[in-house]
Amino acid sequence: MRTLIAANWKMFKTRAEAQQTARELIALMQDDWPAERDVVLFAPFTALAATAEAVAGSPVAVGAQDVYPAAEGAFTGEISPGMILDCGASWVIAGHSERRHILGESASFVGKKTAFALEAGLSVMLCIGETLEEREADKLEAVLRAQLEQAVRGLSADACLKGLAVAYEPVWAIGTGKVASEADILEAHAMVRNILGVILGSTAGSLPILYGGSVKPENASSILALDNVNGLLVGGASLRAESFSKIIRA
Length: 250
Ligand code: PEP
Fold this sequence. Notes:
Layout: E1 3-8, H1 15-29, E2 37-42, H2 48-55, E3 60-64, H3 81-86, E4 91-94, H4 97-101, H5 107-119, E5 123-128, H6 132-136, H7 140-152, H8 157-163, E6 164-168, H9 182-200, E7 209-212, H10 217-224, E8 231-234, H11 241-249
Parallel strand pairs: 1-2, 1-8, 2-3, 3-4, 4-5, 5-6, 6-7, 7-8
The chain binds phosphoenolpyruvate (PEP).
Phosphoenolpyruvate binds at residues 8, 10, 169, 174-175, 212-215, 233-237.
């Protein structure tokens, strides 16, 4: 399976800053992209078109950080899959923990977004993960199962294979500098693969499962070497082209 290295720029970067970072990244890679690695930049909505323009002709894809599950309509402030595609982006994040926990998005709404975006032709990075409280209460597996059930049940094997990736991101490791231990990552990724297998059957073996949570150039290669880790979703360390380029090469 190919390895996917994704940058989540969150609510950072104007159009000019996004273009500059994207251009710097391409210059730093010097046309020497590691084989078997794909790269996606999840930019803010306002910088999607500018980022897509900056990476045109390179192997880098662009994605949005959220989507509304309707083609158009009276949904003030929201963005449809068609609008994202129109900006030159091909990916979208669904269910990032900051949206689940700060914006109050439910697992069922994340499921609707996932299904609608896939149907509309976007690839989807479905984010799941437990809070520290849930982990300490021994609810890791139950939380991952519930989040995956709501998002993935009902999707066709075809839709999943065309465009679904899952990112396991323990909430307590995002933006905190506390990376999960290798044992934690191995355990959670094996659980995710198993749960996907129960829901989707053999398709599960072909879906990329990424780890996210305080990934840095220093820890990227050891995390990527773990079983069932097929890529990385990187927040803070993706904001500077130099550190993100090191993670792409890790
Ligand atoms: C993220 O935003 O998905 C993330 C993992 O952030 P960070 O790498 O900063 O922990």
